[in-house]
């Protein structure tokens, strides 16, 4: 059963000071079955992150539709869903990991991971235990657990980002270069969690430049270059 259907999706961005509109992506079509892991590849600027952010409803499509099969709401068009619905989905069903950490100020690493669990209905004691277990897994130094992440290195911030998103075991997890600044050992920890999530039924869509990391994880790859080459050939014929 399809959990995500992207149909003729297109997105434009306005550059106001130049009075121009730039087309980021066009005619994107793909389907993701429940429990699959789909990788999106392509050169920088090809629109990979635009697709992922639109799935998370950070962006709204200018063309086409994105349908999501929600555990609570059934099949919905994400571009038309009310804000209240999107807030619920982000808390309970759809996780997002970016290369950058954007969190509430004056929240410690422990509090951030714990809060993610409390939002899912865990009690305080269980949330605290699971937060510590998760921080340990991603090898964040216990000395950092009760400090603010703005003091962390890039790799530490990214590991915290992954911890916050994966600890919820979301129905759908979107990954935007989650291993970009990690060493090989940390990448292994991320892969381990992804494998467990996939085995438990989580659907994943991820952007990776590290093709080797994707090997053996993804069910199929949506390649932006192949997509646009195919459009070009079809147009020329």
From TrEMBL:
Keywords: ATP-binding, Nucleotide-binding. Pfam families: ABC_tran. Residues 4-234 form the ABC transporter domain. One of its GO terms (molecular function) is ATP binding. It comes from the Bacteria. One of its GO terms (cellular component) is plasma membrane. The keyword ATP-binding applies. The keyword ATP-binding applies. This is Phosphonate ABC transporter ATP-binding protein.
């Amino acid at each position: 059963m399809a959990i995500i259907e992207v149909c003729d999706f297109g997105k434009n961005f306005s550059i106001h000071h130049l009075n121009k509109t730039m087309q980021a992506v066009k005619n994107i079509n793909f389907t993701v079955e429940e429990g699959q892991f789909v990788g999106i590849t392509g050169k920088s600027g090809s629109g990979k992150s635009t697709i992922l952010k639109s799935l998370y409803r950070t962006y709204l499509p200018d063309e086409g539709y994105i349908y999501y099969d929600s555990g609570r709401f059934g099949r919905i068009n994400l571009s038309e869903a009310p804000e209240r619905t999107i807030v619920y989905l982000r808390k309970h069903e759809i996780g997002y990991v970016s290369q950058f950490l954007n969190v509430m100020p004056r929240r410690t690493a422990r509090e951030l991971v714990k809060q993610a669990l409390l939002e899912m209905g865990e009690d305080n004691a269980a949330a605290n235990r699971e937060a510590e277990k998760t921080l340990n897994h991603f090898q964040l130094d216990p000395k950092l657990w009760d400090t603010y992440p703005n003091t962390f290195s890039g790799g530490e911030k990214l590991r915290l980002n992954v911890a916050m998103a994966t600890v919820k075991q979301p129905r759908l997890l979107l990954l935007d270069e989650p291993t970009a600044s990690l060493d090989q050992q940390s990448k292994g920890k991320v892969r381990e969690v992804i494998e467990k999530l996939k085995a438990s039924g989580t659907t994943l869509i991820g952007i990776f430049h590290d093709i080797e990391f994707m090997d053996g994880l993804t069910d199929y790859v949506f390649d932006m270059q192949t997509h646009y080459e195919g459009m070009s050939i079809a147009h020329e014929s």
